[in-house]
Protein backbone atom coordinates (compact mmCIF):
# COMPACT_ATOMS: atom_id res chain seq x y z
CA UNK A 1 0.00 0.00 0.00
CA UNK A 2 2.86 2.39 0.77
CA UNK A 3 4.46 1.63 -2.60
CA UNK A 4 1.14 2.26 -4.37
CA UNK A 5 0.61 5.58 -2.58
CA UNK A 6 3.95 6.95 -3.70
CA UNK A 7 3.23 6.04 -7.32
CA UNK A 8 0.41 8.58 -7.22
CA UNK A 9 1.57 11.07 -4.59
CA UNK A 10 4.91 12.78 -4.11
CA UNK A 11 6.70 12.02 -0.84
CA UNK A 12 7.62 14.79 1.54
CA UNK A 13 11.32 15.36 2.26
CA UNK A 14 10.82 13.47 5.53
CA UNK A 15 9.23 10.50 3.75
CA UNK A 16 11.83 10.29 0.96
CA UNK A 17 14.70 7.81 0.93
CA UNK A 18 17.95 9.04 2.44
CA UNK A 19 20.12 8.48 -0.62
CA UNK A 20 23.91 8.79 -0.53
CA UNK A 21 26.57 11.51 -0.65
CA UNK A 22 28.15 10.22 -3.88
CA UNK A 23 26.76 8.50 -7.01
CA UNK A 24 26.44 4.73 -6.79
CA UNK A 25 27.68 4.26 -10.38
CA UNK A 26 29.86 5.81 -13.09
CA UNK A 27 28.51 7.76 -16.07
CA UNK A 28 29.98 7.18 -19.57
CA UNK A 29 32.33 9.84 -20.87
CA UNK A 30 30.75 10.47 -24.30
CA UNK A 31 27.43 10.46 -26.12
CA UNK A 32 27.12 7.34 -28.29
CA UNK A 33 25.46 9.25 -31.16
CA UNK A 34 26.80 12.81 -30.99
CA UNK A 35 30.27 11.87 -29.70
CA UNK A 36 30.46 14.79 -27.27
CA UNK A 37 31.07 14.65 -23.50
CA UNK A 38 28.03 13.94 -21.34
CA UNK A 39 29.22 15.73 -18.23
CA UNK A 40 31.30 18.45 -19.84
CA UNK A 41 33.32 20.49 -20.15
CA UNK A 42 30.95 22.14 -22.61
CA UNK A 43 32.10 24.73 -25.17
CA UNK A 44 31.52 28.37 -24.39
CA UNK A 45 28.21 29.70 -25.64
CA UNK A 46 26.22 26.51 -25.17
CA UNK A 47 23.22 26.44 -22.85
CA UNK A 48 21.30 23.87 -20.80
CA UNK A 49 17.63 22.91 -20.76
CA UNK A 50 16.03 20.23 -18.56
CA UNK A 51 12.79 18.44 -19.45
CA UNK A 52 10.68 15.60 -18.05
CA UNK A 53 8.20 14.08 -20.49
CA UNK A 54 7.71 10.46 -19.54
CA UNK A 55 10.10 7.56 -19.99
CA UNK A 56 13.46 9.18 -20.65
CA UNK A 57 14.59 6.60 -23.21
CA UNK A 58 12.37 7.92 -25.99
CA UNK A 59 12.43 11.48 -24.71
CA UNK A 60 16.21 11.69 -25.01
CA UNK A 61 16.15 10.52 -28.63
CA UNK A 62 13.71 13.32 -29.54
CA UNK A 63 16.29 15.86 -28.47
CA UNK A 64 19.52 14.28 -29.76
CA UNK A 65 17.89 14.16 -33.21
CA UNK A 66 17.42 17.94 -33.14
CA UNK A 67 19.86 20.14 -35.05
CA UNK A 68 21.80 22.39 -32.73
CA UNK A 69 21.78 19.99 -29.79
CA UNK A 70 25.38 19.31 -28.73
CA UNK A 71 24.78 16.53 -26.20
CA UNK A 72 22.01 14.94 -24.16
CA UNK A 73 21.92 12.81 -21.05
CA UNK A 74 19.19 11.32 -18.92
CA UNK A 75 18.80 11.51 -15.18
CA UNK A 76 16.60 12.19 -12.19
CA UNK A 77 15.38 15.61 -11.12
CA UNK A 78 12.84 17.38 -8.94
CA UNK A 79 13.01 15.02 -5.97
CA UNK A 80 14.50 14.85 -2.49
CA UNK A 81 16.86 11.84 -2.44
CA UNK A 82 20.51 12.65 -3.24
CA UNK A 83 22.18 10.46 -5.87
CA UNK A 84 19.25 8.07 -6.36
CA UNK A 85 19.29 4.83 -8.32
CA UNK A 86 16.77 3.86 -10.99
CA UNK A 87 15.11 1.33 -8.71
CA UNK A 88 14.73 3.94 -5.97
CA UNK A 89 13.20 6.47 -8.37
CA UNK A 90 10.76 3.86 -9.73
CA UNK A 91 9.61 3.07 -6.20
CA UNK A 92 8.20 6.59 -5.95
CA UNK A 93 10.09 7.15 -2.68
CA UNK A 94 12.55 9.75 -4.02
CA UNK A 95 10.17 12.27 -5.59
CA UNK A 96 12.21 12.54 -8.81
CA UNK A 97 10.93 12.51 -12.35
CA UNK A 98 12.83 11.00 -15.27
CA UNK A 99 14.51 13.96 -16.99
CA UNK A 100 16.53 14.75 -20.09
CA UNK A 101 19.30 17.33 -19.94
CA UNK A 102 19.81 19.06 -23.29
CA UNK A 103 23.01 20.99 -24.01
CA UNK A 104 22.41 23.10 -27.10
CA UNK A 105 23.64 25.95 -29.26
CA UNK A 106 21.09 28.78 -29.03
CA UNK A 107 22.41 30.26 -32.27
CA UNK A 108 21.14 27.14 -34.07
CA UNK A 109 18.14 26.05 -32.00
CA UNK A 110 16.55 28.61 -29.65
CA UNK A 111 15.06 27.58 -26.32
CA UNK A 112 11.58 28.33 -27.68
CA UNK A 113 12.04 25.62 -30.34
CA UNK A 114 13.02 23.11 -27.65
CA UNK A 115 9.87 24.07 -25.73
CA UNK A 116 7.75 23.44 -28.83
CA UNK A 117 9.34 19.99 -29.23
CA UNK A 118 8.76 19.28 -25.54
CA UNK A 119 5.05 20.10 -25.60
CA UNK A 120 4.33 18.25 -28.84
CA UNK A 121 6.24 15.08 -27.87
CA UNK A 122 4.04 14.04 -24.92
CA UNK A 123 0.66 14.58 -23.27
CA UNK A 124 1.17 17.18 -20.53
CA UNK A 125 -2.33 16.74 -19.09
CA UNK A 126 -1.89 13.32 -17.49
CA UNK A 127 -0.49 14.08 -14.04
CA UNK A 128 1.56 11.24 -12.59
CA UNK A 129 1.64 9.15 -15.74
CA UNK A 130 2.45 9.18 -19.42
CA UNK A 131 0.37 6.77 -21.44
CA UNK A 132 0.70 3.30 -19.94
CA UNK A 133 3.62 4.39 -17.74
CA UNK A 134 2.16 5.19 -14.32
CA UNK A 135 3.99 6.84 -11.44
CA UNK A 136 5.33 10.13 -10.16
CA UNK A 137 8.59 9.52 -12.05
CA UNK A 138 6.73 9.99 -15.35
CA UNK A 139 5.27 13.42 -14.59
CA UNK A 140 5.71 16.27 -17.02
CA UNK A 141 8.23 18.91 -15.92
CA UNK A 142 10.42 21.78 -17.05
CA UNK A 143 13.32 22.83 -14.82
CA UNK A 144 14.62 26.25 -15.80
CA UNK A 145 18.10 27.76 -15.54
CA UNK A 146 17.29 31.46 -15.62
CA UNK A 147 14.38 33.87 -15.14
CA UNK A 148 14.19 34.20 -18.93
CA UNK A 149 13.82 30.43 -19.34
CA UNK A 150 11.14 30.45 -16.64
CA UNK A 151 9.25 33.19 -18.44
CA UNK A 152 9.52 31.41 -21.78
CA UNK A 153 8.38 28.09 -20.33
CA UNK A 154 5.36 29.63 -18.60
CA UNK A 155 4.38 31.60 -21.70
CA UNK A 156 4.60 28.50 -23.89
CA UNK A 157 2.52 26.56 -21.35
CA UNK A 158 -0.18 29.21 -21.47
CA UNK A 159 -0.18 29.19 -25.27
CA UNK A 160 -0.35 25.38 -25.46
CA UNK A 161 -3.05 25.25 -22.80
CA UNK A 162 -5.29 27.27 -25.08
CA UNK A 163 -4.87 25.01 -28.10
CA UNK A 164 -5.26 21.88 -25.95
CA UNK A 165 -8.49 23.20 -24.43
CA UNK A 166 -9.77 23.97 -27.92
CA UNK A 167 -9.03 20.34 -28.84
CA UNK A 168 -10.93 18.93 -25.86
CA UNK A 169 -8.04 18.22 -23.49
CA UNK A 170 -8.03 18.95 -19.76
CA UNK A 171 -5.62 21.32 -18.06
CA UNK A 172 -1.84 21.02 -18.25
CA UNK A 173 -0.23 19.45 -15.16
CA UNK A 174 3.39 20.22 -16.07
CA UNK A 175 5.48 21.57 -13.20
CA UNK A 176 7.73 24.49 -14.17
CA UNK A 177 10.31 25.21 -11.50
CA UNK A 178 13.87 26.55 -11.27
CA UNK A 179 16.66 24.00 -11.56
CA UNK A 180 18.33 25.47 -8.50
CA UNK A 181 20.19 23.78 -5.66
CA UNK A 182 16.94 22.29 -4.35
CA UNK A 183 16.33 20.49 -7.67
CA UNK A 184 19.71 19.19 -8.86
CA UNK A 185 20.01 16.92 -11.87
CA UNK A 186 21.47 13.48 -11.05
CA UNK A 187 22.70 11.53 -14.11
CA UNK A 188 21.18 8.08 -14.55
CA UNK A 189 23.01 4.78 -14.85
CA UNK A 190 25.16 4.02 -17.92
CA UNK A 191 22.67 1.63 -19.51
CA UNK A 192 20.01 4.37 -19.62
CA UNK A 193 22.21 6.85 -21.48
CA UNK A 194 21.24 6.86 -25.21
CA UNK A 195 19.28 3.68 -24.55
CA UNK A 196 17.48 3.64 -27.90
CA UNK A 197 20.74 3.98 -29.78
CA UNK A 198 22.08 0.90 -28.02
CA UNK A 199 18.72 -0.88 -28.30
CA UNK A 200 17.05 0.33 -31.53
CA UNK A 201 14.04 -1.92 -30.98
CA UNK A 202 13.71 -1.00 -27.33
CA UNK A 203 10.66 0.36 -25.57
CA UNK A 204 9.66 3.93 -26.35
CA UNK A 205 6.61 5.25 -24.51
CA UNK A 206 6.80 8.76 -25.96
CA UNK A 207 3.72 9.92 -27.84
CA UNK A 208 2.20 13.37 -28.22
CA UNK A 209 -1.40 14.51 -28.37
CA UNK A 210 -1.22 15.36 -32.06
CA UNK A 211 -2.05 18.97 -31.16
CA UNK A 212 0.51 21.41 -32.55
CA UNK A 213 1.81 24.56 -30.92
CA UNK A 214 2.31 27.46 -33.32
CA UNK A 215 5.91 28.14 -34.26
CA UNK A 216 7.61 30.53 -31.81
CA UNK A 217 7.95 33.23 -34.48
CA UNK A 218 4.17 33.18 -34.93
CA UNK A 219 3.24 33.65 -31.28
CA UNK A 220 3.54 36.27 -28.60
CA UNK A 221 5.31 33.81 -26.31
CA UNK A 222 7.98 33.36 -28.96
CA UNK A 223 8.54 37.04 -29.68
CA UNK A 224 9.14 38.02 -26.07
CA UNK A 225 11.65 35.30 -25.17
CA UNK A 226 15.40 35.75 -25.69
CA UNK A 227 17.49 32.86 -26.99
CA UNK A 228 20.69 33.49 -25.05
CA UNK A 229 19.72 32.69 -21.50
CA UNK A 230 21.44 29.88 -19.63
CA UNK A 231 25.17 29.24 -20.07
CA UNK A 232 26.12 25.60 -19.64
CA UNK A 233 28.48 24.88 -16.74
CA UNK A 234 31.60 22.77 -17.18
CA UNK A 235 30.21 19.88 -15.17
CA UNK A 236 26.78 18.40 -14.59
CA UNK A 237 25.10 19.60 -11.40
CA UNK A 238 24.88 17.06 -8.62
TrEMBL record:
<dbReference type="InterPro" id="IPR002569">
    <property type="entry name" value="Met_Sox_Rdtase_MsrA_dom"/>
</dbReference>
<comment type="similarity">
    <text>Belongs to the MsrA Met sulfoxide reductase family.</text>
</comment>
<dbReference type="InterPro" id="IPR036509">
    <property type="entry name" value="Met_Sox_Rdtase_MsrA_sf"/>
</dbReference>
<dbReference type="Pfam" id="PF01625">
    <property type="entry name" value="PMSR"/>
</dbReference>
<feature type="compositionally biased region" description="Polar residues">
    <location>
        <begin position="1"/>
        <end position="11"/>
    </location>
</feature>
<comment type="function">
    <text>Has an important function as a repair enzyme for proteins that have been inactivated by oxidation. Catalyzes the reversible oxidation-reduction of methionine sulfoxide in proteins to methionine.</text>
</comment>
<protein>
    <recommendedName>
        <fullName>Peptide methionine sulfoxide reductase MsrA</fullName>
        <ecNumber>1.8.4.11</ecNumber>
    </recommendedName>
</protein>
<feature type="active site">
    <location>
        <position position="55"/>
    </location>
</feature>
<dbReference type="InterPro" id="IPR050162">
    <property type="entry name" value="MsrA_MetSO_reductase"/>
</dbReference>
<feature type="domain" description="Peptide methionine sulphoxide reductase MsrA">
    <location>
        <begin position="50"/>
        <end position="204"/>
    </location>
</feature>
<feature type="region of interest" description="Disordered">
    <location>
        <begin position="1"/>
        <end position="22"/>
    </location>
</feature>
<keyword id="KW-0560">Oxidoreductase</keyword>
